[in-house]
Specification:
The chain folds into two domains: 311 residues, 4-Layer Sandwich (Glutamine Phosphoribosylpyrophosphate, subunit 1, domain 1), CATH 3.60.20.10; 170 residues, Rossmann fold (3-Layer(aba) Sandwich). It is 29% helix and 24% strand. The protein contains 17 helices and 23 strands. It binds adenosine monophosphate. The site of adenosine monophosphate has 20 residues, from helix 13.
Length: 494
């Protein structure tokens, strides 16, 4: 569920969606396809959006606060002419949602123009900013992405490829990038592959997107994921791929599968819905309870609820209705308002729950606001018992790589054990999936290669320990406090 997470934290979270389109016919207009791509990535960010287009000679761009459907119209899209486009939707924390932070960023120099759209969060922004300021750069935003574009621009005289590889070796953190020059579209993914990026094909060109659902939306075919540490350069000659930097372990963000991504996306070979269903199946095995009905919290809890129902044999019902029109655009600055928001956003279906022992599944507990309110809603609707099951382990640590989790003081699981949380939210029982169970669920969905049978055993550097596993191919920083790279300066103190 995606109830408004107002966050008083002072770092801008770049937790976004990006799209890139390259059409080989120079008379075709890429902005329309990019627009449809952005619409299907809207769940990744609702604060601002932007598009930049290149026609072989120059780059034009447009950024505005608001939702994709509200911001663009036929005239605006028609005015953005060019066969290459990159686009962005931004999710930022309240107070940081300003037009200055909207992307793509565009830089102009004697050597040409560059546009950048970034999803992720750098952990060495400050030293990089200082380095750039010492050599004359000034900044107009608090966005990491401005640092990235300034670094590329600074190195541009060495040639595009060198400028990109040099920049990418300097920045540390999570990044999926769509970069554009007047003639070229470039995609890059950080060496740990923390944030997703995939490549698709349309009849007359190529697509880069945060999630495959955007490729589907514009009638394309998913070709493959961009590998961790890979750069792809797309131009008249086709797609050129090379790797930058040292080989590092893959550490894809687990929370993409748990909460963030759309269920119809396929990420690094794993169908998101399938992964959520598997998590539900494991949860049913790990924390079975006698009940009459299983329901899920829309939208991200539904897959796990289906899996729980399938594995336990307890019937699945809708149980909860979500108001589709209350989004993150409605920012709740106080805890009181956040709580009230749950009532506005969710309601119980009496006919599904009245007089019943209900198992309710959500993907995560962060502050505990949603679960506490949901239990009140279910009891008011007549549920006889309410058993809460969570398809991710307790979130105990902040994320520094782009997921909007608050500081430790606000994370209920950082401060209380499961029994104390159960009492605080008022459930009859509460259980989280284990770390091993979650990783097992993900690994059971991995394909060896397209079309090949599933791996029968947990896979990929899969010697994860009983404590839950640093070598399993996923970043679990928010659960374990073990991050893919060391934190720099103030960051580690949240
Ligand atoms: P809370 O109400 O603070 O415990 O948050 C848990 C709920 O928020 C769950 O329903 C999650 O689906 C949802 N959620 C988890 N992470 C996020 C996030 N980064 N942004 C918005 N919603 C989230």
């Amino acid at each position: 569920m995606d109830i408004a997470h107002a966050n008083e934290d002072d770092k801008l979270k770049e937790y976004c969606g990006i799209i890139g389109v390259y059409l080989s016919n120079h008379d075709d207009n890429a902005s329309r396809l990019a627009y449809y791509g952005l619409q299907s990535l809207q769940h990744r960010g609702q604060e601002s959006t932007g598009l930049a287009v290149a026609d072989g000679e120059k780059i034009d761009h447009f950024r505005e606060m608001g939702l994709v459907a509200e911001v663009y119209n036929k005239e605006k899209l028609a005015a953005l002419k060019g066969h290459i486009a990159i686009g962005h939707v931004l999710y930022s924390t309240s107070g940081k949602a300003t037009i200055e932070n909207a992307q793509p960023f565009v830089s102009r120099s004697k050597l040409g123009q560059i546009a950048v759209a970034h999803n992720g969060s750098l952990v060495n922004t400050e030293p990089m900013k200082e380095f750039l300021e010492e050599t004359g750069s000034t900044f107009t935003s608090s966005s990491d992405s401005e640092v990235i574009i300034k670094l590329i621009a600074k190195n541009y005289k060495k040639g595009l490829e060198r400028a990109l590889t040099d920049t990418i070796q300097l920045i540390k953190g999570s990044f999926a990038l769509a970069v554009m020059t007047e003639k070229t579209l470039i995609g890059a993914r950080d060496p740990n592959g923390i944030r997703p990026l995939c490549l698709g094909k349309v009849q007359n060109g190529w697509i880069l997107a945060s999630e495959s659902c955007a490729i589907d939306a514009i009638g394309g075919e998913l070709v493959r994921d961009i590998a961790p540490g890979e750069i792809v350069i797309i131009n008249e000659d086709g797609v050129l791929s090379f790797n930058f930097g040292e080989k590092t372990a893959k550490k894809t963000c687990v929370f993409e599968y748990v909460y963030f991504a759309r269920p119809d996306s396929i990420m690094d070979g794993i169908g998101v819905l399938e992964a959520r269903m598997k998590m539900g199946e494991v949860l049913a095995r790990e924390s079975a309870v006698a009940a009459d009905v299983v329901i899920g919290v829309p939208d991200s809890g539904l897959g796990a609820a289906l899996g729980f129902s399938k594995a336990s044999g307890i019937p699945y019902a809708m149980g909860i209705v979500k108001n589709k029109y209350v989004g993150r655009t409605f920012i709740a600055p106080s805890q009181e308002e956040r709580e009230a928001m749950v009532f506005v956003k969710l309601n119980a279906l009496k006919s599904d729950v009245a007089g019943k022992r209900v198992i309710i599944i959500d993907d995560s507990i962060v502050r505990g606001t949603t679960s506490r309110r949901l239990i009140q809603i279910l009891r008011k609707a007549g549920a006889r018992e309410v058993h809460f099951r969570i398809s991710s382990p307790p979130v105990k640590f902040p994320c520094y790589f782009g997921i909007d989790t608050p500081c430790r003081a606000d994370l209920i699981s950082a401060n209380q054990d499961t029994e104390a949380i159960r009492q605080a939210i008022g459930a009859d029982s509460l259980a989280f999936i284990s770390m091993e169970g979650m990783i097992e669920a993900l690994q059971s969905c991995e394909y060896e290669e397209e079309g090949a049978p599933r791996k029968s055993e947990p896979s990929r550097e899969s010697n994860h320990s009983a404590s839950g596993a640093s070598n399993c191919g996923y970043c679990q920083g928010c659960f374990l406090g073990e991050y893919p790279m060391p934190m720099i300066g103030e960051l580690g103190k949240r």
